[in-house]
Amino acid sequence: MKSDIYITTSTGLKVHFDDERLRNSLKRVGAQPDVIERVVEQVKTMLYDGISTHKIYALAFKLLRNASRPVAARYSLKKALMELGPSGFPFEIYFAQLMAEEGYTVKNDQIIQGHCVTHEVDIVAEKDNTIYYIECKYHNSRGIVADVKVPLYIRSRVNDLIEHQAKQKENEGKKFKGWVVTNTRFTTDAIQYGLCSGLELVAWDYPENNLSLKKRIDETRLYPITCLTTLTAAEKQAMLNQKIVLCRTLDKNEKLLTSFGIKANRLAAILSECALLSSLEKK
I need a surface site. Which of 34, 169, 188, 276 has the fewest CB within 10 A? Predict the structure, then answer.
């Protein structure tokens, strides 16, 4: 239900607060009905004109964390993807592992010869006799989107790669495709160009099926360590620096956790959150 209170979106728009949207977002991450209603009602008491959607998220997350840390971790997924930095390389590793879980053979950070020049490719994947050249565009802010210049640039690089690689003996009979993956969103023009040029685009909520980033994560249950509420920011960054990006890597792995200086009194909570997050129903 829309209220008389205006909120400010990440793009600066002023819109009416709609408690049904908040309710649906909590439902999608698996919150129980009684928890949903409690969070929505408490958030409504803290609203004021001009409050940002980011602030509303922070309020809801705090309340949800008190009720269920694993559900709160899932609720923070978009923010967690933005914390796969600062370089963006952890995001490239993370998406490659998502693809590996889907049956692709993957390699990160490859130097591939094109027709005109060599190219550094974030991910080279292969499945069903098709080679995929994948560029990842990581952003650490909700307000940043990938515009049409991104797929235009990647299309030209992929074309140069295909022109050379399709002629190589080891690639005889293989097909080639280019992808661009972002943890935020593409503009309408970027999506149109991708559709027209045959370049696959993957974003947080695009395509609107099981191939969007958030749906891939939910289907595979490969949640990033950055969504865990039981780790500190410093601990997460230390793990990312060692190319550890998946909660699954930490699950039942006390030895690994202690190697990062985590004390015994915290191990049970971290391991429990990892296990419960993996066991949540798909939404």
Answer: 169
Q: How far is 23 from 117, CA to CA, in rounded Å?
A: 51
Cα 214 to Cα 78: distance, rounded to the nearest angstrom: 8
CB 89 within 8 A of CB 123: no
Q: What residue ranges do the domains of the chain occupy? A: 2-67, 89-220, 224-279
> At 241, is the pLDDT very low, low, confident or very high (cuts 50, 70, 90)?
very high
CA distance 114 to 157: 8
List CB contacts of 73: < 8 A, sequence separation 6 or more: 80, 223, 227, 228, 229, 273, 277
159 pLDDT tier (thresholds 50, 70, 90): very high
Angle between helices 53-67 and 33-45 (to 10 degrees): 140
Lateral strand order in the sheet of 118-127: 105-113, 118-127, 130-137, 175-182, 200-202
Residue type, 201: L
Would you say domain 89-220 falls under CATH 3.40.1350.10? yes
To the nearest 10°, report the CA torsion of 127, 130, 136, 142. Answer: -70
Helix (H) or strand (E) holding 88: none
How big, in percent rounded to 5, are the helix, strand and coil portions of the chain?
A: 50, 20, 30
**What is the pTM assigned to this prediction?**
0.89
Whole-number Å distance between alpha carbons of 201 and 199: 6
- Per-residue pLDDT, 281: 58
pLDDT tens-place string over residues 14-29: 999 999 999 999 998 8
